[in-house]
Specification:
The protein is α+β, with helices and mostly antiparallel strands. The protein folds into 2 domains: 103 residues, Alpha-Beta Plaits (2-Layer Sandwich); 133 residues, Pseudouridine synthase I, catalytic domain, C-terminal subdomain (Alpha-Beta Plaits), CATH 3.30.70. It contains 5 helices and 9 strands; from the N terminus they run βαββαβββαββααβ.
């Protein structure tokens, strides 16, 4: 009897063209599906909580797949996947869920972090964006609070996406210093394509004194991507958490 499982895993997105299958490029989904197909057959598929863009990383990602039968030792199976996958994808655990559970549609929230630094760090270069000008983080935090007042974030979305609406319920949005780095944390029930990188780029306009709170509001209310700031580099962005209702787990 078929059984559905969630995989909790992480990956360094440097060498991948995002999560989703691509016709002429290597994706995380392709690599993980290939391993599962070797174990369970060519029709095995894997569906993630969301699709990260090229170069974006995940400290915590969930995906589901269906096994043709119940797996006896989930810890041993997780280790087996870990061995079969390349070194830049790590499996943390495999969890039994109800067969109706869906890694994308059942997620309650997703959390991202964007990392920036002001010093060159050759050992961390692929995991943060180097800034060359100082930023006013107090102003950026003050203006970030404006995000809680809106739901339609069309202005921060890539154009011509396949979603039915651009409404998101943002639950957290703040900058904090962690050692030599500054980190922007944002949590929402869902995210639009390119949304976090566009928000960070627009908040940087605030941090450089090029935009005030009223200007930030105008950007959101315009529902026009051309009014927002430039999207920041992908390499500083991490998916860090996905939450689910307890009822989906066995």
């Amino acid at each position: 009897m078929q059984q559905r499982y969630f995989i909790r895993f992480s990956y360094d997105g440097t060498n991948y063209h995002g999560w989703q299958l691509q016709p002429n490029a290597v994706s995380v989904q392709e690599v993980m599906a290939d391993v599962l197909q070797k174990l369970f057959g060519p029709e095995t598929t894997i569906t993630a909580a969301g699709r990260t863009d090229t170069g974006v990383h995940a400290k915590t990602m969930f995906a589901h797949f269906d096994a043709p039968q119940e797996l006896e030792d989930l810890q041993a199976f997780a280790k087996k996947l870990e061995i079969m996958l390349p070194r830049d994808i790590s499996v943390h655990e495999v969890i039994a869920v109800h067969n109706s559970a869906h890694a994308r549609f059942d997620a309650n929230s997703r959390t991202y972090e964007y990392w920036i630094g002001f010093h060159k760090d050759p050992f961390n270069w692929n995991f943060y964006t180097k800034m060359y000008k100082p930023l006013d983080f107090e102003a950026m935090n003050r203006v970030a609070n404006v995000l809680f007042e809106y739901k339609d974030f069309t202005c921060f979305s890539k154009l011509k996406t396949d979603v039915k609406h651009n409404n998101c319920q943002i639950k957290q949005a703040f900058w904090e210093q962690r050692g030599e780095f500054w980190v922007f944390t944002i949590q929402s029930d869902r995210f639009l394509r390119n949304m976090v990188r566009a928000i960070v780029g627009t908040l940087m306009e605030v941090g450089w004194g090029k935009m005030d709170e009223a200007g930030f509001r105008r950007v959101i209310e315009s529902k026009n991507r051309c009014e927002a700031g430039t999207s920041v580099w992908a390499k500083g962005l991490f998916l860090t958490d996905v939450t689910y209702p307890p009822a989906i787990f066995k």
